[in-house]
UniProtKB/TrEMBL annotation:
Annotated Pyridoxamine kinase/Phosphomethylpyrimidine kinase domain residues: 12-252
Domain of life: Bacteria
Entry-linked InterPro entries: HMP/HMP-P_kinase_dom, PM/HMP-P_kinase-1, Ribokinase-like
Pfam families: Phos_pyr_kin
GO cellular component: cytosol
Name of the molecule in the record: pyridoxal kinase
CDD domains: HMPP_kinase (cd01169)
Length: 269
């Protein structure tokens, strides 16, 4: 039987992240992918502009999904408002499969101004439904109401533990290169307080646009196939690393590039 997955995310015209990265990742896993679009993201070198989908259009997309018999896993990406979070909550609250929430609150091209009501809606409504949430450091400290970045592994672990307890879900904290210069450090804290630290040697590359979306999508894919959370996290992290290693540039005018989830299919076509 074909596995079916859903992404609820923004659209990125440059395909670095958002639903484009999600769909590309799902395609590499042989999954049938469906989507609900929350917004249009206009990505510029030093700024991000988000144009939300109007509330009625957002809601009717969920109504159309009633024609699909089931989803084996669901990923939630960028949501722009409390209203979008509420609509998503009502869709998900009766769903029993794996849910991965990537709480997109910041971009490397520029920070988003986050309404405190959105943080509360995530914490009180959406995250308690999640199997696992995948914030980066900036998103985690915003959700945890902290005002400083952790600079040590123990501080990152404490942040993940605090956020997991508050959000009532497992936390995959994408700590990245800010903890150890030569290693990528991610922290997985499950709801029972079990800790795993996922460490890889740093890939020195500017081709990491969409890395967070790709990791969350890969994690969603592995959970759809029934992997345990730790194994799914390990495999998603390695998949994302390979996507960064094989990143492609947009043009000679830009020094950065996009993670390429499809590199393996292109290499072996």
């Amino acid at each position: 039987m074909v596995k079916k997955v859903l992404t609820i995310a923004g659209s990125d015209s440059l395909s670095g992240g958002g639903l484009q990265a999600d769909l590309a990742t799902f395609a590499t896993k042989g999954l049938a992918a469906f989507s609900v679009i929350s917004s249009i993201a206009i990505i510029q070198e030093n700024a991000v502009t988000i144009q939300p989908v109007d509330d009625q259009t957002f809601a009717t997309q969920f109504e159309s999904l009633e024609q699909v018999d089931h989803f084996d896993a669901i990923k939630v990406g960028l949501l722009c408002s409390v209203e979008q979070i509420e609509t998503t909550y009502h869709f998900l609250k009766g769903y029993l499969g794996p849910i991965v929430v990537d709480p997109v609150l910041s971009f490397k091209e520029g920070e988003l101004a986050v309404d405190p009501e959105i943080l509360t809606a995530y914490l009180d409504r959406l995250l308690p439904l999640a199997t696992v949430a995948t914030p980066n450091l900036n998103e985690a400290i915003a959700l945890a109401h902290q005002n400083y970045l952790p600079r040590t592994k123990s501080a990152a672990v404490a942040l993940a533990k605090q956020l997991s307890a508050r959000a009532r879900c497992a936390i995959y904290l994408k700590a990245g290169q800010q903890i150890l210069a030569d290693h990528q450090i991610d922290v997985l804290m499950d709801e029972d307080g079990h800790l795993s630290v996922i460490r890889h040697e740093t890939i020195h590359s500017d081709g990491n646009n969409g890395a967070g979306c790709t990791l969350a999508a890969a994690l969603t894919a592995r959970l759809a196939f029934g992997d345990e959370l730790y194994d799914a996290a390990q495999r998603a992290a390695e998949f994302t690393r390979q996507g960064i290693r094989h990143a492609y540039s947009l043009s000679d005018k830009r020094s950065d590039g996009n993670v390429w989830p499809n590199w393996y299919l292109a290499k072996n076509k």
